[in-house]
């Protein structure tokens, strides 16, 4: 065990910090759940890409830097400490990207990954269906083979920012007679294809944050399939693993709001201390964020030693989603009676976006596999308890 | 940057675990705990033969020269197998205190050698604990008089025993007269030494609590996989599963907190006290939940004397408030993180050196 950064790691930290200081947008970008904000975030992603900072862990030929996981943690720490914009293309970059690297053909990697790193293509997910949520194997959308194409019919839902995105990826039933997790294929679909209709769904924040996607005889070439025909479930499980795992929710994402929460508490201490449990809640989330960061460094060390992280990633998902909720709930308690005011309200005292974060935190225990499902996975695969 | 243990360190932990599994089975512990002394010279000798008493004794005094990090693995095993206070108090906390005493303390090296050989029991009376564990049979007790450190032989103290709900505990009120003959450090020299002893005692308890949490989880998993109701193992019911999944999560995320605290103490990190208090609270919460959910999933069996779960629950409830209760450690966390120069935010994870 050695908890010192190497000179090389320190130098990388300095470089990232310096670059962000020079290049951060002067004004806060609009919400990426709006068309205007989405495009502003795309521009920011392009700037990151030009500095080879959009996907630091990807190899140099794909526009990355070939960083290891420790350097990635350092990058994330500097990124969040600088209050840099949210990453708009994470569904592509963090979920589909690693899937393509593991299961994609050389041709697919060349075609999709550099454009994904540069955010020339923006990606949405197409997993859930009206009757396939937590029970994803109940998928019924079909992709039936017709020569060198699939013909897709069906409906997907809860696709984050799909009305602004260029592509979607997801699971479709390629064997019409198959059941459950058999006979599914993993396909990438251009959202401007004929027969695709996208209807926005207004989220809790009143913005078109997600959407339904309808497929009406949409023709997709066979070369848009990842992995073998019928083995989509296997490919998708790897994607779900990445999603729950470390990359999507780096520890810095929680350590930075905790720092701000402590500032918020200190600035409003007299009012907050009328309820002594607020101070305790602040201490609790401080400990939670630290613990999540320490666990991340531990996982990175284990991966570097060649160990695998399996079903424990379900524990991770529960921890960060409940931590995020508690951080924002505590902030709202400190803001008290002005907490309900939108940031545009003249009397708002919320200069960090606590309300917006509070709303989004409500979704954490639901998306990426509901926490009840994660607890089942922990009980069955980590503790070895019998299936129901 | 590498926040993992070496294969050798892991193998060491496994070896300790295998040894204690055979030598400290619950039925053997119950017998020992029912005796007046509550301790077994036989078990103690076997532990010394395994080198457990010599772990943190410097090599020049016949020890293995290991630090707090290795002890953070060792204390988890002590907790898991319910080993009473005397071993960690002697071989870890007291040994740590003695090894930083000034050279003028002529007995220092001799004491360390005796601890390494397993020939001496040392009790420690830190003011944070109202009573002294195992002073009744310690060869000598380290005591605090207005900040001074005194090493007081058994013949110069009177003890009044205070029975605890944890049958493994032997808590003593110690009555003694300070004198220049027993004083081994003045108050000025003693202050940082007592502070470090408190941190080490709290870290020792944190590790034991985490081990206890794991033991209670393992006992509970075994029980719910076997116990049937409605024609099925109760472990197949979601409500039961979720209780135990929550315990597993708490344990998993308390572990790296314990390891950072151990590293910070071993390396003299400026934030060591903060990290140790965080570990005491996090490991205490994991153990507390493991006890609560453990007894719940055991049903009425968990409320009996017969089922072993009770031994580990009671030790948890006792240790949670030992070497600083939760209020003490939360007050230290509070003072540190609300300070103007607190190490907060991304990039400060490993504190200031």
Overall mean confidence score, pLDDT of chain A: 95
Q: What assembly state would you assign to the polypeptide chains in this entry? A: heterodimer
Strand content of chain A: 5-15%
CATH class of the domain at 191-337 in chain B: Mainly Alpha
Count of beta strands of chain B: 9
Trace the largest sheet of chain B across and list its strands.
1-3-4-7
The backbone outline of chain B, from C-alpha atoms, is globular
User: What is the mean predicted local confidence, pLDDT of chain B?
Assistant: 96
Taking strands numbered 1, 2, ... along the chain, how are they ordered across the largest sheet of chain A? 1-4-5-8
Return Rg of chain A in Å: 21 Å
Roughly what fraction of the amino acids of chain B lie in strands?
5-15%
Q: Please describe the biggest sheet of chain B, giving its number of strands, its sense, and whether it closes into a barrel.
A: 4 strands, mixed
Low-confidence stretches of chain B: none
H and E order of chain A: HHHHHEEEEEEEEHHHHHHH
Topology at a glance:
The complex is a heterodimer of chains A (388) and B (353).
Chain A: H1 7-23, H2 35-50, H3 69-81, H4 90-103, H5 106-117, E1 123-126, E2 142-146, E3 149-160, E4 167-173, E5 184-190, E6 196-201, E7 210-221, E8 225-226, H6 232-244, H7 252-267, H8 269-272, H9 276-304, H10 313-335, H11 354-363, H12 371-382
Parallel strand pairs in A: 1-4
Antiparallel strand pairs in A: 2-3, 3-7, 4-5, 5-8, 6-7
Helix pairs in contact in A: 1-3, 4-5, 4-6, 7-9, 7-10, 9-10, 10-11, 10-12
Chain B: H1 7-23, H2 26-33, H3 41-49, H4 68-80, H5 85-99, H6 108-117, E1 122-125, E2 132-133, E3 140-145, E4 148-153, E5 158-162, E6 171-175, E7 183-185, H7 187-226, E8 228-229, E9 232-233, H8 238-266, H9 272-298, H10 309-319, H11 326-337
Can you characterise this structure?
- The complex is a heterodimer of chains A (388) and B (353).
- Chain A is of the alpha+beta class and 388 residues long.
- Chain A has three domains: 7-88, no CATH class; 123-235, Butyryl-CoA Dehydrogenase, subunit A, domain 2, CATH 2.40.110; 245-382, Butyryl-CoA Dehydrogenase, subunit A, domain 3 (Up-down Bundle), CATH 1.20.140.10.
- Chain A is 46% helix and 14% strand.
- Chain A contains twelve helices and eight strands.
- In chain A, the strands form two sheets. Chain A has a four-stranded mixed β-sheet with strand order 1-4-5-8. In chain A, strands 2-3-7-6 form a four-stranded antiparallel β-sheet, with no helix packed on it.
- In chain A, helix 7 packs antiparallel against helix 9 (276-304), helix 7 (252-267) packs parallel to helix 10 and helix 9 runs antiparallel to helix 10.
- The two termini of chain A are 41 Å apart.
- In chain A, 44% of the residues are buried.
- The mean pLDDT of chain A is 95.
- By secondary structure, chain B is of the alpha+beta class.
- Chain B has a domain at 191-337: Butyryl-CoA Dehydrogenase, subunit A, domain 3.
- Chain B contains eleven helices and nine strands.
- In chain B, strand 8 and strand 9 (232-233) form a beta hairpin.
- Chain B is globular, with a radius of gyration of 20 Å.
- The relative contact order of chain B is 0.11.
- At the A-B interface, helix 3, helix 7, helix 9, helix 10 and helix 12 of A face helix 7, strand 9, helix 8, helix 9 and helix 11 of B.
